[in-house]
Amino acid sequence: MKYISTRGQAPTLNFEEVLLTGLASDGGLYVPETLPQFSPADIAEMAGMNYAQLAQKIITPFVEDCIPGPDLQAILEETYAEFRHAAVAPMVQIASNQWVLELFHGPTLAFKDFALQLLGRLLDYVLERKHQKVVIMGATSGDTGSAAIEGCKRCNNIDIFILHPHGRVSDVQRKQMTTVVGDNIHNLAVQGNFDDCQAMVKASFNDRSFLPADRSLVAVNSINWARIMAQIVYYFYAAVALGAPARKIAFSVPTGNFGDIFAGYLARQMGLPVERLIIATNSNDVLHRVLTTGTYARQTLEHTLSPSMDISVSSNFERLLFDLYGRDGAAINDLMARFADGDISFNDQAMSEVKELFSSYRVDDAQTCAQMAATWDSCEYMLDPHSAIGVKAALNCDLPASVPVVTLATAHPAKFPAAVKTAGLDDEPVLPHHLRDLFDRPERSEVLPNELAAVQAFMAENINA
Ligand SMILES: Cc1ncc(COP(=O)(O)O)c(C=O)c1O
Ligand SMILES: N[C@@H](CCOP(=O)(O)O)C(=O)O
């Protein structure tokens, strides 16, 4: 499998090379040159597979020229054995035709574990063989950070630097990052917002001169293709459990950086019968406004009860645009250059294609709390605020009665106890056993100004020899 950049000018890479990078050298994002296709018969065969087996089936075509089948199998089995539920991604029915896909049974209680437990092991595998050391840089609004640290902490060949917006993540999210000890693990609390952190990561890919000459820079955010690849699997897993390929399924996805829902789009392009993908946003609703106005306009970030989705520059939307503009790298280059200077509008053809598959809905904090309370009252099911946004959007979407709607439950409610309290639920969420002493563990992090030079200087000083 070859990977090409959305901006058309960077070199074509293989899987191993794409794993060991982030942004392409032309500023674009890597995507597969072609997508593997699964026929209805192939999908029917997936019915009896456990999660790791299904992951092998879906992921093999993307990696097979770099990772031999038996090695991939061992990595996948080990990855998904880390999850605290035998089904790995169990589903719960919360209303007639409404399902919740629980993606929070991994070590850090968010959907990020599905990709980052795998990415950490893939990096370890590749770097050991190449005798290479790398620097990882990531931006987090709360969940990617802890999942990346947890996924990569066993790798000897990395230094990892995670930037989070100071004071803007929940206490549990912060503790999950800052209590993991290791002299190669660095948490930087940046006095800015998530967009600032993400912009610093992207700028560092564009100018890597602050790094020692023998280190390359690797991304753990969803700009890294391997993140998206791993997330495609659970769309197949859920759809097959609910009757695919005989039945079409809709998915509602709490959205920020557009990585998770883009994985759903790819699943559809690979043959999964997806009726609709619902973009569920909080009040940081850039993507909802794209669908309703055809214009992609930055907004001032609001601090919400769903902090992980407090994002206004949605990285992976570029990957969708690449398809919508006929995979024309020059057109994307031009669009993105204009976006750097201000708002951009999309052509009618692109917008009508988007609307054929995607719906969108914006859910503010009051509606989020109301949905958490309503779901609790109707079936004593506790949603975290991000998942509640997905459920609210799912309930709002007008779909044929024959189509089951699956909301991706992207985080465990115990990561957001303050939101659960604000929503007025009778019970308090309880952290799973392995995190019960989280608040007794010592923390280590560095508060830094919202300045690229300060962040890069800190990194340069702290990379292990
Ligand atoms: C709990 C949670 N839900 C939803 C999202 C949005 O996912 P994406 O950025 O892939 O759209 C995030 C973070 O990205 C998250 O941490
Ligand atoms: N919500 C994320 C933000 C980063 O998104 P990513 O999927 O690109 O890593 C977080 O919780 O950190």
TrEMBL record:
<dbReference type="InterPro" id="IPR000634">
    <property type="entry name" value="Ser/Thr_deHydtase_PyrdxlP-BS"/>
</dbReference>
<keyword id="KW-0663">Pyridoxal phosphate</keyword>
<dbReference type="InterPro" id="IPR037158">
    <property type="entry name" value="Thr_synth_N_sf"/>
</dbReference>
<keyword id="KW-0028">Amino-acid biosynthesis</keyword>
<dbReference type="GO" id="GO:0009088">
    <property type="term" value="P:threonine biosynthetic process"/>
</dbReference>
<dbReference type="GO" id="GO:0030170">
    <property type="term" value="F:pyridoxal phosphate binding"/>
</dbReference>
<dbReference type="Pfam" id="PF14821">
    <property type="entry name" value="Thr_synth_N"/>
</dbReference>
<comment type="pathway">
    <text>Amino-acid biosynthesis.</text>
</comment>
<dbReference type="InterPro" id="IPR036052">
    <property type="entry name" value="TrpB-like_PALP_sf"/>
</dbReference>
<dbReference type="InterPro" id="IPR004450">
    <property type="entry name" value="Thr_synthase-like"/>
</dbReference>
<feature type="domain" description="Threonine synthase N-terminal">
    <location>
        <begin position="2"/>
        <end position="80"/>
    </location>
</feature>
<feature type="modified residue" description="N6-(pyridoxal phosphate)lysine">
    <location>
        <position position="112"/>
    </location>
</feature>
<dbReference type="InterPro" id="IPR051166">
    <property type="entry name" value="Threonine_Synthase"/>
</dbReference>
<dbReference type="InterPro" id="IPR029144">
    <property type="entry name" value="Thr_synth_N"/>
</dbReference>
<comment type="similarity">
    <text>Belongs to the threonine synthase family.</text>
</comment>
<dbReference type="Pfam" id="PF24857">
    <property type="entry name" value="THR4_C"/>
</dbReference>
<dbReference type="GO" id="GO:0004795">
    <property type="term" value="F:threonine synthase activity"/>
</dbReference>
<protein>
    <recommendedName>
        <fullName>Threonine synthase</fullName>
        <ecNumber>4.2.3.1</ecNumber>
    </recommendedName>
</protein>
<keyword id="KW-0456">Lyase</keyword>
